[in-house]
Amino acid sequence: MDSFNQADMPFKPGVLVISHGSPDPEWVILVDEAVAAATAGLPQDVPVEASFLEKVEGRLIQDGIDRLEALGVSDLIVIPLFVSSGSTHIDEIAFALGVKNTPEKETDMERLRCSARVFFGDPIDDDPVIAEMIWDKVKNLSREPEREVLLLVGHGSIHDGFRQRWERGISSLAARTGELSGLADADYALLNPDSVRRKVSYWNEERGFEVIVAPLFLSAGYFTKTAIPSRLTGLDFRYSGDALLPHPFLARWMLGQILNIMKTLSQ
């Protein structure tokens, strides 16, 4: 980290939204649109940058930091646009930004140059706004709520410690969404370690419920289009394949996080 005297710099907050990144320009556009919608709810003098962990040239995390600091940002509000605190990327980004001294899992990521004070937000996990969003995405698949179960499917992790965080977050999010939906029950499954087929079989064949499968992924791609359906070949289920984006509630979630952190900074 560069040496820097915080007292010499006037207070000026800025926002850095960090997501994974993709070579697919449509993926990037969806993130940019959500960030722009969240930014519309902020004071005009608060600069915002959407940056990516990889795959988007000229818009990596260091690029975003550099642009914000060039505008005089003294306090950096970082919003990790990831679905779970069980993501190993959250761990390595927090380490690279100096939020934690050592990563829990070995990483090739090096410390980033950052003079501003960093305020690290939370990933999605079990946020109630996201529960509303998930149900809004799949409610048109429901026909007889008393005979249906919602199965939320996420990426998961094979790494000890990270897997448990994935399970805590997605199980709580499934429960929140189930309460909103009025369905008979709600459950979750992960791709890593793989429990998707077993969970659908259990609810459908052993319990006699219709299963509505909802993917917990930021944007559509391989996991929503191929990985999940391929595990369920021959089973009876309903699936739209809709990822979280696009949806206005994601901007609402981001804006809520930013404003909450800004409130603590102004106290």
Automatic annotation (TrEMBL):
Q: Does the keyword Metal-binding apply?
A: yes
Q: Which UniProt keywords apply?
A: Lyase, Metal-binding
Superkingdom of origin organism: Bacteria
Presence of keyword Lyase: yes
Kindly give the CDD domains that the UniProt entry links to this protein.
CbiX_SirB_N (cd03416)
PANTHER family, alphabetized:
SIROHYDROCHLORIN FERROCHELATASE, CHLOROPLASTIC
Name under which the protein is recorded: Cobalamin biosynthesis protein CbiX
Q: Which organism is it from?
A: Paenibacillus vini
Q: What is the lineage of its organism?
A: Bacteria, Bacillati, Bacillota, Bacilli, Bacillales
